[in-house]
Amino acid sequence: MTNSNLTRQEYITQLEEKLNALPESERKNALNYYDSHIKESEDETAAIEKLGSPSDVAANILSSYVKRSSQAPPQPVAGAAYDAPPAKGTNWLLIVLLAIFGLPLIGLGFGAIGLTIGLGGGIFGIFIGGVSVLITGIASLVLSLPIFFQDPGFGLLASGLGLFFIGLGTLWVMLMVMLVKWLIQLIKGFTIKLGGRA
Length: 198
What we know:
This protein is mainly alpha-helical. It has 2 domains: 3-71; 120-197. It has helices spanning 8-18, 24-40, 44-51, 54-71, 90-150, 152-197. The longest helix has 61 residues, at 90-150. It starts with 7 loop residues before the first helix and ends with a helix. Residues 76-87 have low confidence and may be disordered.
């Protein structure tokens, strides 16, 4: 059967059989193109004759597809893992941008951590100082009792100093506890306000 004896439908059917090696989407695109080309011509028989045999057209389509697919990046296959190759130069650009913008933020982060540790250490040190004054007052009061019997004047002075240090240490510890509670509330309020803006 020559091309001139083929109907449009027969031509497209034979072309489809010859294009089985193509992916379905490529095959449909090619078949739609040639079907439309033949339909839109004034004389379908002349259009089919001008195109050439379905084998020749299929060979041209397959050759063109092989050339295009060898130059194009690989396409993902359904169900297969596919990793796109990284763009050249992207990694260095990312590293430079992170260095420019990230390092100051890291420095600020470490600065905030250092400030927090420093404040915490300072508050803890002051608290321990108050506890030390309290312990000194208790020790002074306990040690003043035997002295009180040997020298009542000096014993009374030592016990008075002991009571003074107990009062001062207690006040000191209570003030530090209040300060810590206030700082915790301040930090909570600041983080809530900071979180509310974001």
